Amino acid sequence: MTAMRRSWIGSAFAGIYPKIPFRSHLLKRVVAAEGGDMYSLTLRDILEQYHGIRVGNYSYGSLLTVGHCDRNTEIGDYVSIGPNVRRFGAAHPLHHAALHPLFYNPALGLARADQDVTRESCWIGHDAWIGANVTLLPGCRRIGIGAVVGAGSVLTRDVPDFAVVAGNPGKPIKASRFSPEIEALIIDSQFWTHPPERAMQVITGLNERLDPRENAF
Description:
The chain is an alpha/beta fold. Helices cover 24% and strands 14% of the residues. It is built from five helices and twelve strands. Helix 1 runs parallel beside helix 3. The longest helix has 12 residues, at 196-207. The mean pLDDT is 94.
């Protein structure tokens, strides 16, 4: 069964999530009961409501772990994220006299709200693949549809649709996985808007149009 899932226990848990102890441990159990992070709607509810992170259907991986990803992050559908990926939406203020967060982060009780650093947003496109141990820094505000980020990369800038990037800092090793014609076919198909069974039919048709030699690295 490939449908997204929300259990009655999960619905109740989401309503009291901020008030209960050991919530991280309990959340793992609820997510497991709903088939894991790829399918859990309760996890998506909690990430959006309490942590400012929106996650599309069938996406999975370490950025769905509470604490691994800053607010103002939106993850598309069918995104694959490897272990130990982190996203930071803000940096220490190099233009300030002091760098310690006590002197700019109002959540720590000393600084005013207008002294806080800018916390950037980031959109991660549908069907993107982010390898293990990748770090997303504030300069990266968009990872394109179908893009690939190599394991261990540090991203300081945006990644175009279907590009393959790797390294520290991340640099293109292939401008696009496909020709412009195939890119347009995939974008027009919008396969990520469909449930898996229908998406599989669309993808099968697209694969029949591909030349394996075109996609070789």
